[in-house]
Amino acid sequence: MTSDRKDDHVRLATEQNRARDRRNDFDEVRFVHHALAAYDLADVDLSVRVGPLTWPVPLYINGMTGGSAETALVNRDLGIVARETGIPIASGSMSAMFRNRETTESFSVLREQNPDGVVLANLSANASPEQAREAVGLLKADALQIHVNSVQEVVMPEGDRAFSHWLGNIERVVSALDVPVIVKEVGFGMSRETVTTLAGAGVRIVDVSGRGGTDFAAIENSRRTGADFSTLSGWGQSAIAGLLDSRSAAEAAGVTLLASGGVRNPLDAVRALSLGAAAVGVAGGFLRVLRDEGIDALIAEITGWLDQIRSITALLGQASPATLTETDVIIGGAVREFCEARGIDIRPYASRGTNTRRTDR
Question: What is the DSSP letter of 101?
């Protein structure tokens, strides 16, 4: 049953990313153009700090799949893509291998194909410290993602129905591991209250993973008899809203924010970096390219993304992704309404580069 579900997820996510309406909250973030501020592209360094780790680029392939023969082939191809582009990559949920040891190779193939790159293991919030150590060891992982996905579980016909123990589990796993723990949503967003709670449990990296990308409520609903949970499609807040909501709380608690969910192009990645994400994850869009066009096409796609991220960073007068938080951005539409309702003053974002912008180059 688990293998069938994993295959269903890949198929349905690919279909969703072919047909999805392209407009989302990223469109509500616009940069103020300063015509004499551009940096030399050759001087832009794309490396970033993610908690205690240094990543070569501010873009990563987010956790997708594993747990079946078909998804083993997907992970093999993704491992090759990560190796050839130098981009960090996360495994899909490895919980399946604790139920069926025959699925272990569908995860380990990521490290086999990418022996020297940044690889993240991935488990659910039900994982024990022992399982976490085993998952990290299997992939020789640089960090562990723990995904929290209560919305998906509620809609999933065979999903979990108990969630109150998750926070305690996360705290125990953080204490047990020697590598960083990244807690992520699966596309329903994070709030500042959640980030603060996670910081209290010792978590220092949070992926705000918001709506606008792969919708797991819709995927699981399509697997239900009667599809009676359609009202939860589109639940939650976007990555953009999550960054704006969580940034102050994260800074106060020493938490690094990542962003994923609905990232459609390199400009979206730069938008997220400008709002405080240390790095930006993509899953569904890259999966669609891989499934429809193949490995070489995805390598070319990611290489193009990295080139454009460098170019846009330079255009905005910055030498690194980290200083994109000094750029001037205008926030409008539904995101502005969200910020007003949550008491977030977005006016300073429009002129925050005034004291550091250079126009004498």
Answer: G
